[in-house]
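pasting for ref. prot 1 ->
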Amino acid sequence: MSVKRTIIVILIVLVVIGAGAGFFLWRGKAQAIEDVLPQGALFYVKFSDVDNNFSAIKSTAFWQSMQTARWDHLLEKSGFSQHQKDLLKSIGEKIADPSTAAVLKEFFGQEFALAFYPPATDPGEIAILPEEDMYGFVRKMFSNVLLVTRARGKGIFVDFLARFLRYDTKLQPETEDVEGYTLHYVTLPGTNLRIGFVNIHDLLVIGIDEHILEQSVRTSRREIPAFSSDAHLRRSRERAMVPSEFDGYWNMAEISAYTDQYLGALVSRMEEEIRDTAAPQEEDSPERDERDERDEGQGEGNTRQNVESIKAWLTERTRLAAGLDVLGVSGRWDDMLALKFDLYFDRDKVNPQKSATYSCPAATNATLAFIPADAIVYQWNNCLDLKASWDEIKQEVAAAHAGVEDAVTPINALETVLDMNIKEDVLPAFGDEMGGYLKDVRVGTLFPVPEFLFFIKIGDEAKTKELLTRFEDRFLEHVRQEEYNGIPIGYVVSPAGGDIELAYCILDKYLLFSLSRPVIKGVIDTYQNRAPSLAASDAYKAVHLADHPQSRAIQFIRIDEAAAALQNILTWAKTRQAAQDAQKEAFQKGSAQRLADVVKEMGSQKQEFEETKKRIAALNDEIEKLESQQVDAAMQHAEVQQSQEKIQALEAGIADARARQKELEEIRRGYDRYLVERKNREEIEANVVSPLLKSFMSLRSWGVRTTLETGAFESNVFLKVE
């Protein structure tokens, strides 16, 4: 073979190998979940790398501590019926079963997604829905839901379903071919719910209705547009966290519209029932039982009240939801849990009363300069709109007092007490920033005292000082003044003692309030750089709150220290409760002795009563004998009279003793009930509350930063876990 022919053969072989490799890679390429989902989902969420993330979560101290909690105790003490308790317990056992867990891992260990499309039922159906067709309504409501998973194991879905639902017989699926794919359907025994599934490449697609499954198949064949090009999905991912192992969105505008439709149909049905109830019936008569009339009237009144409540809620919800579009969510788990929420809105459609909320820009948080490093809870926002809030309050008050002549509204009464106009004298004094922090909770006193500080930005300093002066003169007696490092502090000692003081000062451009003068002084020290600030602390930096100089709102919690503070409060409460238990026990012992004395006394009275009755009977016999013999029986008659009076006194005494016995027995039964409640409380505290607090002590810092960026609220959430 010549060199030339050799080269040609080699080239042909390389081409064939390349083509084969290309074909293999094309066939072996993983199908994207978004490519088998049709467009138009109302709700969508996808989880990736589930197995590894779940393993990482299970390795945390938080998860390990949570496993020690006895949730069955909480379930047993709940208000659920026994059937509901058994059902929930059964579901928990099924999920905890190792074989079920293994199958779930096969199904969901890689990635899975859930998409909820507009329901196939008409909202009006809820108004004519018969109770016996509930399964049909559920099927219609959830007919357009798709679950897609990159399952490691295939062909075991039916067996898993049968095992999980504990059917004695194997479920026999029906099959149907669509575009070269086999669709499997299983009807759950005793219902008309029909679950379908299909394998598309390496994806398992599960749904209730055959229509949505066929849509998925046709989407995978590119016969209809795929979800990957959905406008809402793309918009939600414009600002999503990168990289992310969790993402999704909530179409708030469309979901809100559907909510209005279905609840509106429900209200219409309830109003129709009210009209039908109020309409005269042939069987009604003037002689109808008054109690039935009263009961029917109460039922109608409750229904009307429910209708009006739903209507009011719908009105308020519609008002608040106006202009909201899509809520995008993304997140990941690496050295901490990180979540990102992006709420898109249409500024032209939002409620005008909330316009400030949707236009307030991010700003530099100057309050961090005076928040001490040992704060365990801290919150700040810069979009306080007191005028808008006050206008809303006035509108609600006016609506509540509409049509009432010479009505004295709470606003008028408040302004009279304050001797000032709130809109003109109070609101201008304050600006648009507000917040506070919690340092600790003192439990060494008669009651827990939080060491917290509240601050609000000053709007008009002159009005603020005037307001403080008028407040001191009118409401605060014995106001004391102290100057600390050049900053005047006003304070009032509480009559309750325990180092409780209403303390306040003006620092920089903020008005500060606290129940502790030392807290105020700690803030001043921090501001004047004599103590470290929260912004410089490792815990604050760990949750990335210091990475961005400007925000609209900040929330920060040292979860472990907050849980420790709650534990201290719980310990204090247990000590107080133990003292109350001792008092109740002592009272019960006294009541038990009094009950024994009453029973003994009543027994003596009953014995004397019977003896007196016998004496009266004997006297009557004696009187009859004497009188038959013509002998004077006056002495016997007198003794009978005395004995009858004694009988009456004994009857009154026995009745009184019986009443005291009844009262004391009720005290005993009440104490018995209290013992049961105490035992339940102690069991829940020991088996649920304490393990839960211990779990939270393994969490470190929680931080949330919110801002406004080009038509969207952006919130970043970080959780540092041990």
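and prot 2 ->
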Amino acid sequence: MKSMKNLIRILLLTLTIMSCQKDFVNSDVDVKIAAPSEVSAAFKITNDNSGLVNIVPESNGGLKHVVSYNDGSSESDTLDLGQSIDHTFAEGNYEIAVKALGYNNLTSSNEVPLVVSFRAPENLEVTITNDSAISRQVNVVATADYATNYSVYFGADSEAVTANAGETVSYIFPEAGTTTIRVVANSGGSATTVYEDTAFNVTAILQPISSAPRQQARAASDYISIFSDTYTNEAGVDTFPDWGQGGQGSSWTTFDFAGDSMLQYINLSYQGITFSASDVSQMEYLHFDVWTAEVNRIETSLISVGTGEKPVWTVLESDEWTSIDIPISAFTDQGLSVNDIHQLKFVGDVFAAGTVFIDNIYFYRAATGVVTDDIEDFEGTAPVIGTFGNAAVAVINNPDATGINTSAKVAEFTKPAGAEVWAGSNIVLDAPLDIVNFSKISLKTWSPKVGAVVKMKLENADASITHEVDINTSVANTWEQLSYDFSAAPAADYVNLVVFLDFGNAGDGSVYYYDDFQLVDDSGSSLSSPIQSFDGDTPTLTPFGNAAIAIISNPDSSGENTTANVAQFTKPAGAEVWAGVTLDTEVLDLTNYSKISFKSWSPTAGATVLVKLENADASVFHEVSMNTTVANAWETLVYDFSGAAAADYVKVIVFYDFGNTGDGSVYYYDEIKLTN
């Protein structure tokens, strides 16, 4: 009997462990395997007229390679990644065939021309140009009959840079000026042909080659503009009041780039801007954009009628636009009154020795609400919806007009049994999406299952530029709103909106619905309630699964997050796949706020960040996962908890890189908020 009791105890313990583990299993795995690409080869020909050539196969994604010489001899054995092979050729022209072997036995091939000649190259043609977009970069292209490759010496004491004939070689000089550029064309023999330019003038780009970044749409009550083409500027602004700058050799003009007007301060020493006294105490930031090739830092001072001036220094990036957002608190913390600001002052470092271009000078605060712009709601004339991968789409009457979606019409998406894992639908838009002023796209979805991946992809007209974001459904058989952050998408005219339901899984006959595509700008929404900012008293944080947590000074005070302190989340090597951190908080108001947002910094894009809410005894909980979209930069993640069951949630649990064993990576998060 005692043995029987022990057996029962063991079985109960095993079931308990299995139940706990199940809570942390993430069964949605999206694996995309592509054939190798960019298949090529590099050649090194022995300069002894022997015809011996060393061949280094290259590819993106290839694990092994096979080389066919196309000279009547047998192809090479299979070569490991990075392995080269020698082969002796007779003099002549060859097309060397390289086959790259990748994952799942996927292969790609390409032919690379090879010239084996035992005579010096002839008819050498060399083109040397200054790059039009990169300051002090010189580009060289050389071709010649009988040439296999060529070497370029950028300056008398430089090392050679070698490339195949017809390829471009580039080099950025530390300074502008006259230099010697020597080009040596090589063949299969010892003889070479040389071209030399002893007086090539390396030029620096000293003015912008693009407009300043576009500014987002703002309500008139949310900004005070001094100089900007985007907003209405204050009356009576003088951008060059002449405070004696001419005595330091400074001057001023306006610079026009393709219709975009900006201020140009030449040999900047100090420069003032005057305007009618303005109360900027309700604003949160001073913004301006600076381009320079010569100035290291810029000092910015606000000048008050009553309390004088206070400065803030900012480091500038060279040869590109630097977007600067200085908190108004940086001035008030120095004792400056900001209810009577009537002047700005800029000072250059190095003093009076470099030119700056300045645009978009304005004060601003967070938007007083969320701004949206409709893309498609299916209520009017039905759009043309394309399908692929055996998916089917139709515009129908809303089959579940409840909750957040009571509209009449929706799109019905069917993924029949056997449909491709990438089955989806697309809408070709009449005009490009404005993701400059609206960085997010929201979508209402209805899914029969929790955890289905809903992928949204943007494409330009020829699909040469794309960007995609994944979100998992968090509820079943009810409408929920998904918010996709496209702030990291490269600039392009996106006109194709693509949606994949249950991406990564073959069709099983499930039916989904979606509705109300909207562009959204919530970058500065005040419709939020702070949970934790880590800048006051240290909260109660409890790590588990071998995770580690600490409150530290912000290691990357830039972009979306310039606060002083952040939470550092470390997932050491060997930490559990479910390692995370619990934040104890007051009861969360999910009645008035349906979402939770926080700022996140991850060393990798695509890491799953799971957020889980629990009541006091964890008897009621709800979890939502998102993937990071950028690496080594702050981004805002917004989690929709509108589907959470009613409860007094007092724990916010964060899991970084959920589903993967710890590898020593370090993550940061901050500014946890309830939001709409």
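Residues 1-31, 524-529 have pLDDT under 50 and may be disordered.
The chain has five domains: 37-116, 122-202, 220-364, 371-521, 528-675.
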